Request: fold
Amino acid sequence: AQKVTQAQTEISVVEKEDVTLDCVYETRDTTYYLFWYKQPPSGELVFLIRRNSFDEQNEISGRYSWNFQKSTSSFNFTITASQVVDSAVYFCALSVSKLGHGGSQGNLIFGKGTKLSVKP
Amino acid sequence: GAGVSQSPRYKVAKRGQDVALRCDPISGHVSLFWYQQALGQGPEFLTYFQNEAQLDKSGLPSDRFFAERPEGSVSTLKIQRTQQEDSAVYLCASSFRQGDRYEQYFGPGTRLTVT
Reply:
């Protein structure tokens, strides 16, 4: 079975602090994709990043960076110099290849989310 | 361009009533997903369409839940004889193509409250 664990329920930081959101996943599949989504108070999930299981290269996008480590089954997300606008719930998600089930369909398995509050 | 839209945004139903939730995916998107998000939880998969074909409904919690996408575009999630445990936000997502490598674009959700 597949599972995503986000152990941090809530994190509160002061603006300009760096913050890391943890994500640990479980799957027996060798081919899978990992995602991070942001859910602001408006409720709409916003796609941030996708990584595939064959690419462990870390990625940086502006103030955001992601650390993917297969050895520890982790896909952590760091926000550098946090801002008030970063306040949201962040979800880590996993998608596995359901080959033979009408092809690979890609439904996401989400963690419970981490609520980040950035205070001015 | 227009994103995924859902209507209504809020729905209050008395226990036992039937409800219908609508999703308009991004034009041209082949894949469409429905998720259920309980308060304080992550979204959970309900069902998946590729064009008009419902290829996976393994996440539907009971036979009171029914989804359709007759022309491969707009989708409707119907819940019959609503129960209090059906109270949740129902999210629709679409993806340009089939497959796990493609990111999904989510709508704002419909918040269903069953009283």
Summary: Chain A touches chain B through 33 residues (CB under 8 Å). The mean pLDDT of chain A is 90. The radius of gyration of chain A is 15 Å.
